[in-house]
Amino acid sequence: MNLLKLNFIKMSQYYNPNRTTNIFNPNSKTPFNMSRSKIELFKSCPRCFYLDCRYGIARPPGFPFTLNNAVDTLLKKEFDTHRVAQSKHPLIEEYNIDAIPFKHKDIDAWRNRWQGIQHIHKPTNLLVKGIIDDIWINSDKELIIVDYKATSKNAEVSLDADWQISYKRQVEVYQWLFRKNNYKISDTTYFVYCNGDANKKAFNKKIEFDIKIIPYKGDDNWIEQTLLDIHKCLLSDKAPDMSDDCDYCRYRKQAALKSAQEMKKNL
User: Fold this and answer.
1) By CB atoms within 10 Å of each CB, which of 14, 114, 116, 249 scores lowest?
2) Angle subtended at Cα 66 by Cα 65 and Cα 67, rounded to the nearest 5 degrees
3) With contact defined as beta carbons under 8 Å apart, do 129 and 36 qualify?
4) How far apart, in whole angstroms, are the C-alpha atoms of residue 227 and residue 234?
5) Beta pairing, strands 143-151 & 188-196
6) Would you call 94 helix, strand, or coil by DSSP?
């Protein structure tokens, strides 16, 4: 058995096309879990969102980004050292940012995939959740949302690509969640962006990263209406139309068309 085939067999363990948990029931009074990623799915494609949350048919997942996870873990360890000491990380010093890592008893819970920061949106009974990377605090006692990103590209990292709107919405959901939990939140967020250097002469058992801190001024005003739109979508007995710019919808449409053509030929 070749390695590629083996990888696909292993990958199938990560996908359940008939999920039976976290399915929206219009008649249920229990708050429905709405993760930050599900909100992003709705913004990306309401039809894919509906198939996921009403029928348990999620998009097939990609392969886990384990290298990114390693970068994330190491950054947390670094910043946690300064959290304990209540001192500035050298990167914060380098970028002359008025902040230190925020020390709080719930920092680990906010980072935990089973907990996170939560808020029940009463108009929709949606339990909105988000999992943060880090929180800093400035001299005005405002909390600052911080997110870690990792990549490897020759160009300078930025937030200018169209697809990076998802990054911006991500931190805005976190800002909204903390505000709903009565924390004073700065409009400015920061992305700690790690860019792997592939231009070294040799690997030498290590990858070196250039790290850039990118500020972004968030605006969470879109979230309330989006949650209302999500709730309306979930209550409908009809799935939204296919999205022209959704690759998953285009795949399903084309596959169905070809299957129908083949069946017609075989009649």
Assistant:
1) 114
2) 95
3) yes
4) 10
5) parallel
6) helix
8 A C-beta contact, residue 137 and residue 244? no
- Would you list the DSSP string of 11-64? HGGG--TT--SS---TT--SPEEEEHHHHHHHHH-HHHHHHHHHH--PPPP---
In Å, how far are 48, 120, 231 from 33, measured between CA atoms? 17, 9, 12
Judge whether 157 and 193 are in contact, CB under 8 Å.
yes
Does residue 185 contact residue 179 with C-beta atoms inside 8 Å? yes
pLDDT tens digit sequence for 112-143: 999 999 999 999 999 999 999 999 999 999 99
Q: What is the pLDDT of residue 5?
A: 40
Residue in the structure block whose two tokens are 């097939």:
60
* DSSP type of residue 150: E
Residue 143 has phi, psi (to 5 degrees) of: -80, 145
Rounded Cα–Cα distance for residues 84 and 101 (Å): 9
Which pLDDT belongs to residue 2? 42
What is the distance between the alpha carbons of residues 260 and 227, in angstroms, rounded to a whole number? Answer: 37
The residues near 112 (Cβ < 8 Å, ≥ 6 apart) are 131
pLDDT of residue 65: 72
Cα–Cα distance measured from residue 260 to residue 263, given in angstroms and rounded to the nearest whole number: 5
Both tokens of 166, joined, read 């998802």
